[in-house]
């Protein structure tokens, strides 16, 4: 998730001296993946790079540099988790520290704009060496750009030597999360599900005609669509989106389902309800001439099997688990060709 961008700009707006910490390279086992981030000020901390002694030590490094007020604005710390920090992971984590200043606003705003592109954008941080000044630049790549694909081949390593400039360079791609979830219904289950999805790596479009049901504030990854033509949202959603139909009206549920059954590029199609509701809908769809194999794509009841309960929070947890499993399966499918190519070499 890219909430660190807005948080960093929030700190700059308030002139709050802050250090951005990025997991730049992992060797062996580590508590978080490469690219995980944390922001640290003199008295506050946002996000996490894995907790425990690693996180405490990283915050200590950052606050020492903020307190000293001198030294390089960007530097690397290599921390062996086992011998140095007593953590069970036992690997080595290389952390990039960046003291953020007003001069960093430009690339942060460029990242915020560029991440909305389907291809995302690339952030490159050069640490500099003797005679080479440090730099940060952001650009939107095309599909032939080697930098765009570089970290996919080695997902645990964003930090590499730059053969041209002769210094260490971090390069990462910042893009919208591929999991896009469209939720129809702002009732109790919709509220509970959005509360959970707001903390997870996904994008959410939340749809209902009843504007008064939406809360005053929603998580940064949630967009509200207060509309009385929800079918249009289905037509406009990008390919491979996940849809959850959970409105207050069975007739509306049926219309939305029929609209969704016309699409062939839906990654997940969930309908809230019981097996009885499913059978009734199946009967109605057959009467309308909808092919049984299309109707079979509907997940109803929704939620990961084995998680039982009718409370809104329980249903929300079960659905979130189901979506996360789908996300993991899709990530493995994307990574499979890269791993096969590496094995061939």
Automatic annotation (TrEMBL):
Residues 181-323 form the XdhC Rossmann domain. Residues 12-70 form the XdhC- CoxI domain. Gene3D superfamilies: NAD(P)-binding Rossmann-like Domain. This is Xanthine dehydrogenase accessory protein XdhC. The gene is xdhC.
């Amino acid at each position: 998730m890219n909430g660190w961008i807005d948080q960093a700009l929030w700190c700059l707006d308030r002139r709050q001296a802050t250090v951005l910490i990025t997991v730049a390279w992992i060797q062996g086992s580590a508590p978080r993946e490469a690219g995980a981030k944390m922001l640290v000020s003199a008295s506050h901390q946002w996000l996490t790079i894995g907790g425990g002694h690693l996180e405490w030590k990283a915050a200590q490094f950052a606050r020492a540099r903020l307190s000293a007020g001198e030294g390089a604005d960007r530097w690397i710390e290599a921390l062996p988790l086992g011998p140095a920090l007593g953590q069970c992971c036992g690997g080595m984590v290389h952390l990039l520290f960046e003291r953020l200043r007003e001069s960093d606003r430009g690339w942060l705003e460029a990242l915020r704009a560029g991440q909305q592109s389907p291809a995302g954008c690339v952030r490159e941080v050069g640490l500099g060496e003797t005679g080479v000044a440090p730099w940060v630049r952001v650009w939107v790549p095309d599909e032939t750009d080697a930098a765009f694909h570089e970290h996919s081949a080695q997902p645990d390593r964003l930090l590499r030597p730059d053969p041209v400039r002769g210094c260490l360079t971090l390069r990462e791609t910042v893009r919208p999360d591929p999991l896009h979830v469209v939720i129809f219904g702002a009732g109790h289950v919709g509220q509970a599900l959005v509360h959970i999805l707001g903390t997870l790596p996904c994008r959410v479009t939340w749809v209902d005609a009843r504007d008064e049901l939406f809360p005053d504030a929603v998580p940064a990854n949630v967009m509200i669509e207060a509309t009385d033509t929800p079918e249009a949202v289905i037509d406009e959603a990008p390919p491979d989106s996940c849809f959850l139909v959970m409105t207050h009206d069975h007739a509306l549920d049926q219309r939305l389902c029929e609209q969704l059954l016309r699409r062939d590029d839906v990654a997940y199609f969930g309908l809230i309800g019981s097996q009885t509701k499913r059978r009734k809908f199946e009967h109605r769809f057959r009467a309308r001439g909808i092919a049984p194999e299309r109707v079979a794509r509907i997940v109803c009841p929704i939620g990961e099997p084995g998680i039982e309960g009718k409370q809104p929070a329980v249903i929300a947890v079960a659905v979130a688990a189901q979506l996360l499993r789908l996300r993991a399966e899709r990530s493995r499918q994307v990574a499979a060709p890269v791993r096969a190519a590496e094995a061939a070499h």
